[in-house]
Amino acid sequence: ALLREDRVPHLMTFVDSPMAIRVTEVFHRNQDCFDEEMLSLVRSGRLPFYFSTLRLTRSSAESKAINHIRASCIIIAGSGMCTGGRIKHHLISNISRPESTILFVGYQAHGTLGRTILEGKKAVRIHGQTYPVKANVVQLSGFSAHADQDELLRWLSGFRSPPREVFIVHGEGKVPNLFAKVVEKEYGWKTTVPEYLTRIALSTAA
């Protein structure tokens, strides 16, 4: 819609992730699973996953060729936390360019390259080399595939019988402990936040 209404520039956009390309194709092949809003787009002749300036780069050679383009473009690549994958060679080519922008749309865990960049480090190491960070770094919230607190509580409410114990194993800082207290208050269930590398023996006995 933004492109059709000329609200954003018509830039060449590369999806440089074989997995993301395959997943997109799965959605495209299973249009019978679309909701009515998405089906109405398809019926009107608009393909929701594709547009005129979109390019899907499957091969390694196609991926590397993107970095020879000097014109403005958008590169969508993984991994999301910059710990591996094609994003690394794109960072090498662009992280020191003041005219570039690195846009994070997902969570960046402590210790990852993505978190290091997001925290404003002046230089980062990629593949054993140090690169000054001169690109603009931006984070856009709202695209996470993780459930928020309300969604997690709604999921827990679906249990037909209460679990013997709930383990909170995801999150940083005080968040897991705070959520554990919410679960205990909401449902009265025993809730534990295990320490890192703790081993827990689970029993299947009723």
TrEMBL record:
Q: What keywords appear on the UniProt entry? A: Hydrolase
Give one Pfam hit by family name: Beta-Casp
PANTHER family reported in the protein's UniProt record: CLEAVAGE AND POLYADENYLATION SPECIFICITY FACTOR FAMILY MEMBER, INTEGRATOR COMPLEX SUBUNIT 11
- Tell me the ranges covered by the Beta-Casp domain, including all copies: 1-117
The terms under GO molecular function for this entry are: hydrolase activity; RNA endonuclease activity
Q: Note whether Hydrolase occurs among the keywords.
A: yes
Organism source for this protein?
Answer: marine sediment metagenome
Q: Return the SUPFAM superfamilies for the record.
A: Metallo-hydrolase/oxidoreductase
User: What is the recorded name of this protein?
Assistant: Beta-Casp domain-containing protein
